[in-house]
Amino acid sequence: MNMGKKYMDALDKIKDIFANGSDSIWSVADISYSDFKDNFARAIVIAQQYKFFITNEEYNEEKYHHLLVEGRAAINKKVNLLKQLFDRYGIKNYIPPMSQSDETELVAPFSFKYAAVQAGLGWIGKSGVLVTKEFGPRVLLAAILIDYPLDSGSPINKSLCQDCFACVDACPWGIIKGVNWTISSRRDELLDFQFCNKQRSEYIESNGRKHTCGYCILACPWGLSNKRPDSDSALGIPTQLLPEGFSHQ
Hints:
By secondary structure, the protein is an alpha+beta fold. The chain has two domains: 3-146, no CATH class; 166-240, no CATH class. Helices cover 32% and strands 13% of the residues. The strands form three sheets. The chain has a four-stranded antiparallel beta sheet with strand order 1-2-6-3, with helices on both faces. Strands 4-5 form a two-stranded antiparallel sheet. Strands 7-8 form a two-stranded antiparallel sheet. Helix 1 (3-18) packs antiparallel against helix 2. The chain is globular and about 55 Å long. Residues 226-249 have low confidence and may be disordered.
């Protein structure tokens, strides 16, 4: 099989994996910035929508935790299908771990959020999570690295959160600083992430896992087009929050 045909066949098969549902979005990131650049050229990044919608008023920690567990199972299934595809085509691939490598810097070996930004799936919100136009921050992320030159998406370099402070106001600990992210922002400029982790970790002793706090995520107006009659249906953001002159056409 020549390179051109292999490329088109692989791309078509990737699209087939995502063709039967509207519960996720995906794109390709050029990972020449990463520590994996010597072995892999691209990352396919997936953002999986939550299975159902809940508000902060409906928030229940156990219910929210199970919502994330269900979402993780759905996204893992798609990643495994991609791995099977790449193995079949003889394309070297690697699924990076989701877990952080330490409890101090809270950094994973491969950042799904940064890869998602590089792939053009979204930007980083004031609370330090990925925000997508389609689903807001109500997504789980995964990636698979490949040594294959698929066309990559266009990186997003600045926030579209503008003057919205919904996540800032929702945080029960007041640790979100209200700063709009840019591609050069450090995480500690956006929020006190170590204090957030400390508070969540106090749950481990009694429950065997960190607390699944989601107040900042559930408060975000992005992705609420099915709930907000005054929203822009193509973007899922309330029209009063759109910047002047903004167009998605």
